[in-house]
Structure formats: structure tokens, C-alpha cells
Design brief:
Length: 294
């Protein structure tokens, strides 16, 4: 134990300073300076290790006395504190304990599964929208990352899946492609192309007609004209809502005449809506030449 008092010679004071510097850079037990309140001597004392606090500072004749931190308190580093720090971190509703409070560390919280760390609190991981897959799964610290579905695959709904579904192979089912698949929806197959029966109801073929019309890339203006012809409605709405209501209107048209095929009823409506090109496409697609209608 080195003691540097007020009457210490200059040479010894220099040596004390050197020893203090060496002690502070040494990989062994860290030290600190402490002036004895009784003698006024400047002492070089050993610090207490993590998980403990100073019970009694060193003297010229005795080393530093340390004692363990009480429950729910900690010291993380070598120290000469007379009080341990209180474990003051408490996990919120969307958090869980990653590391519980112990003698050397405060409590550590992390976001619960399905959430990631935001600016001030945990935020739910986002879902990847239709047409996208999860390229990188969200963690407690980062949000989900999404990427477009590869060619030949689709994702029809928001999801947390890492893979998109492959498009249906119509030829393997001995069917024809009615609506080509995109990254947002599957290929729609049918056995009704060129075989639509104008006299008998066929639910499968009527559904194929509806699918073809709904997935046809029409401008919003043309869809509104069709809606007006179908049910007298022509409102300015978002594109997704327009297509949803178009599908509903076609289904309602079919349900209103359950004993009749859909196509003979739909073709005049398309003509009224000045959608002659779509009328002609349906004729060519579903009717065997030289079938004619109205």
C-alpha cells in the first residue's frame, strides 16, 4: 500500500504518481485515489469488482472492504461507490425480459415476438402486401422486409410468408388459361373457352365470364360506365373499390337470373355501356363461331 502524505519528499511524490499511473493502466485490479479523512494521507485503493460496493475505504494499514449489492441493485463496472444502482428498467406491455436484473447488470427488455423496436416503443411487424413475400423476417430490433414475388408466382393476400405460391398450370389440368396470373393473383383456368352454352346454365362458365370481365384492364372511366349500366351507380372511388364493386355487381346480375346463362344478359349491357370491344372479346372467347347473339 503506497501512502503519499503532505510531508512526502518530491522524489517519493513523483514515484507515487508513477505508480498510480501504472496501476490505472494495469490489467490487474483497478485502483482509485482516496484521502484519509483522519490522517489527510492520499491513498491508492483497490476498487470493488462489479456486483459489489465499497463497505469501507482502504487505510494505510488495510485494503478496501467490499460487500455484495443488495437485491434489485447492481454495479456494472469496477467501482468505489457506497451505494449500488437500483434496477430501474421495467418491461412494457409489448416487451419481455431479455436479461433479468442481477448484481452486475440492470434489467434488459426486448420486444415480444411479432414486434420490433420503434423510436419510443415496440411496433408490430408489417405484413407484406399482395404481390410480395418476406425477404427478411422481422426481429426484435428491425421490421420485416418485403420483395416482389418472382415471375410465375403470386401472393393474393397480406402475409408473413417467405415464399409466394406458384401459378396454376392449366394445361396439366387439361384446361385453358382464362385469366393469366400476376404477382397478385393466381392463373384462372377454364374448360369453357369456345364451349359456352347459350341455352343451359353452367355455373363454371358463368364464373369464367365474370372472372374475365373483372380482371380485364379497363380504365376507371369505362368501369364506371359499366357500373352505371349494371346498377345505375357511377361514383368516384378508388380503383380497388371500383373492381370490388364490379365483381359484386356481376355476381348480383347472375343471382337475379339464376335460371338463365349470364352471357346473353351481359352482352347487351356491355353494348349499352359502349364497351363493344369487350363484348366482342367475350363472343370470340366463349362462343363457338359462327354463334351469334342478340
Amino acid at each position: 500500500m503506497w501512502v503519499c502524505g503532505a510531508n512526502t519528499s518530491l522524489a517519493k511524490l513523483a514515484l507515487c504518481s508513477l505508480m498510480l499511473a501504472l496501476a490505472q493502466t494495469s490489467p490487474s485490479v483497478p485502483t482509485y485515489q482516496w484521502r484519509d479523512s483522519v490522517t489527510g494521507e492520499l491513498l491508492i485503493c483497490n476498487k470493488c469488482q462489479p456486483g459489489t460496493l465499497v463497505a469501507k475505504h482502504c487505510t494505510s494499514s488495510s485494503p478496501t472492504q467490499c460487500q455484495p449489492c443488495p437485491e434489485n441493485h447492481y454495479t456494472q463496472y469496477w467501482n468505489y461507490l457506497d451505494k449500488c444502482r437500483y434496477c430501474n428498467v421495467f418491461c412494457e406491455d409489448r416487451e419481455r425480459v431479455e436479461h433479468e436484473c442481477n448484481a452486475t447488470h440492470n434489467r434488459v427488455c426486448e420486444c415480444k415476438p411479432g414486434y420490433h423496436r420503434g423510436v419510443h416503443f415496440c411496433v408490430q411487424h408489417k405484413e407484406c402486401g399482395p404481390g410480395y413475400l418476406v425477404s427478411k423476417k422481422g426481429t426484435a430490433e428491425s421490421d420485416t422486409e418485403c420483395a416482389p414475388c418472382p415471375t410465375g408466382t403470386f401472393s393474393a393476400h397480406p402475409s408473413m410468408e417467405k415464399h409466394c405460391q406458384a401459378h396454376t398450370n392449366c394445361s396439366s389440368l387439361d384446361l385453358k388459361v382464362n385469366v393469366p396470373g400476376t404477382t397478385h393473383y393466381d392463373t384462372l383456368c377454364t374448360g369453357c373457352l369456345g364451349h359456352y352454352n347459350l341455352k343451359e346454365v353452367n355455373a363454371e362458365c358463368d364464373q369464367a365470364v365474370q372472372d374475365f370481365v373483372v380482371h380485364k384492364k379497363l380504365s376507371s372511366r369505362r368501369i364506371r360506365r359499366l357500373q352505371l349500366s349494371l346498377n345505375g351507380q357511377d361514383k368516384l372511388e378508388r380503383e380497388a373499390e371500383i373492381y370490388r364493386k364490379l365483381r359484386y355487381s356481376l355476381a348480383h346480375l347472375k343471382a337475379s337470373q339464376p335460371d338463365k346463362p349470364l352471357l346473353p344478359t351481359l352482352l347487351p349491357i356491355l353494348r349499352k355501356a359502349r364497351l363493344g370491344h369487350l363484348e366482342e372479346e367475350l363472343r370470340t372467347r366463349f362462343l363457338q363461331p359462327p354463334n351469334s347473339l342478340v
